[in-house]
């Protein structure tokens, strides 16, 4: 057996990311999938309305059972209808719809296969993308980094839509619910579409805050320590309403 190259070792399994281009039979969406599709489209439209993406850049996915619903490639979100539902299985085979899934399908499937996340949001948010070109980790400018699991890492650049990018992203996401993609954008995940989206918005806000603070001539922003962040992480465990 041939020895693996160094760049092949300890690489997350992100295979099977591309859609099946065959014309095999595809089933109709179940009621829970139809509801999830409506929520997915609403979330995708919100990324545009809030200025996190331009045009059809960025993409959204949500998992329902073993089916991953995803935004289709190159279709403006305001044109999507219930009949446009697009879904694949965890191996990337298309099981719902006829529109081609997003070109970033490998990233979405990598998250859904390796975490317990039910939703993923990917954007080209301006401030976050700018920060991704400057640092390898977002400095601890605000305690809400704790809500993403700790200091936000920057995944090294790789061509969009590739397994290499998906692998880089997974390493940056280890122990986190969000990361930056170098010269590209953001990825966040959550238990729901709302949670994944809120994490995206929070990450963009923190990046904007850091860029604003560092733009003041002659002054350097104060940063939080690891201990201070750990204290916030502990407090966040009891944050919100108990049900």
From TrEMBL:
Protein name, entry field: Class II aldolase/adducin family protein
Biased composition (Basic and acidic residues): 1-13, 23-33
Keyword Chaperone: no
Keywords: Lyase, Metal-binding
Superkingdom of origin organism: Bacteria
Coiled coil: none
Region (Disordered): 1-33
Domain Class II aldolase/adducin N-terminal: 38-211
Taxonomy of the source species: Bacteria, Bacillati, Actinomycetota, Actinomycetes, Kitasatosporales
């Amino acid at each position: 057996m041939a020895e693996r190259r160094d760049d092949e070792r300890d690489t997350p399994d992100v295979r099977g990311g591309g859609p099946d281009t065959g014309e095999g039979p595809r089933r109709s969406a179940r009621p829970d999938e139809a509801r999830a599709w409506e929520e997915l489209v609403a979330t995708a439209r919100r990324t545009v309305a809030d200025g996190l993406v331009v045009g059809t850049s960025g993409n959204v996915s949500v998992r329902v059972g073993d089916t991953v619903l995803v935004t289709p490639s190159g279709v403006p979100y305001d044109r999507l209808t219930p009949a446009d539902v697009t879904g694949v299985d965890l191996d990337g085979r298309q099981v719902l719809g006829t529109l081609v899934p997003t070109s970033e399908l490998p990233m979405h499937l990598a998250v859904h296969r390796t975490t317990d996340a039910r939703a993923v949001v990917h954007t080209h948010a301006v401030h976050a993308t700018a920060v991704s070109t400057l640092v390898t980790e977002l400095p601890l400018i605000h305690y809400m980094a704790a809500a993403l699991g700790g200091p936000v890492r920057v995944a090294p650049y790789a061509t969009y839509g590739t397994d290499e990018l998906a692998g880089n992203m997974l390493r940056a996401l280890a122990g986190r619910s969000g990361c930056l993609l170098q010269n590209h954008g953001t990825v966040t995940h959550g238990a729901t579409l709302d949670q994944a989206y809120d994490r995206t918005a929070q990450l963009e806000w923190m990046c904007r805050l850091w860029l604003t603070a560092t733009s003041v001539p002659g002054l350097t922003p104060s940063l939080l320590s690891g201990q201070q962040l750990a204290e916030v992480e502990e407090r966040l465990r009891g944050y919100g309403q108990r049900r």
